[in-house]
Amino acid sequence: MNAKTTGSGDETVVLAHGFGGDQSLWEKIVPELANHFKVVVFDWSFAGTAVKDDGSSLFDPVKHSSYEGFANDLIGLVEELNLKSVVFVGHSMSEDYEGGFEKSDIEDIISNIESNYYNWATHFVSLVVDASDPPSADKFAKCLSRMNPDVALQLAKTVFYSDERDILEKVEIPCTIIQTGSDIVVPNSVGFYMQKKMIKAPSTVEIISSANGHFPHLTAHRELLDILRVVLGF
Questions:
Q1: CB 11 within 8 A of CB 37
Q2: What are the AB hydrolase-1 domain coordinates in residue numbering (predicted)?
């Protein structure tokens, strides 16, 4: 999983990227976090940078056909690194997905990935990354271009066809849900829905109203760090 550790401290912050990304998407916030915590970044099995010695993908279409497979990967990483006090920061599908697409939208996404992944990826970047930040759009586009199209298709089906809403009421760890003011993938209503359903854990929703798109760690990293300073107390 290409895990890399920086910083030091009694607490560890584990940063998990989402669909189409890799650990490089966290590079704007890692230096500041590493001043206060041990920070771990890694690549999920679907990332274009997650490959075996022979160059093949680490993605297992059977194991990773559900979120349980990814959860087991994460648990294995935490155990391998012997981490004891962990704060998990997950982006998008790494946090669990319950987004704003209609069924017809999802069918179109799956169809477009299957017919021409690279054309779809170019269009997807324009939808999910704030257009006023071209360098960030380029960075995510490069991550998507490294992703195996077959893996992207299988993962998209896992992400968009899964329904994990029943898990929310079982969550016992307080969570902070951070969103931008305008995100076509995950509207603000989703964050408040999740907060309402997590009845066993006092959770909060923080909205960076000045930011747009699905990638605050790229396009609004200073505002994101401001929220993390309050949540994590540094």
A1: yes
A2: 12-93
Give the residue numbers spanning the domain of 200.
4-232
CB 34 within 8 A of CB 1: no
How far apart (Å, rounded) are the C-alpha atoms in residues 107 and 126? 19
CATH number, domain of 134, equals 3.40.50.1820
* Prediction pTM value: 0.94
In the chain, the number of structural domains is 1
| Residue 40: closest CA among 76, 88, 73 | 88
Q: What is the pLDDT of residues 152-168, one digit of tens each?
A: 999 999 988 888 899 99
Q: Which of 154, 184, 135 lies closest to 45 in space, CA to CA?
A: 154
Separation in Å, CA 20 to CA 50, 125, 140: 12, 10, 8
The catalytic site residues sit at: 92, 183, 214
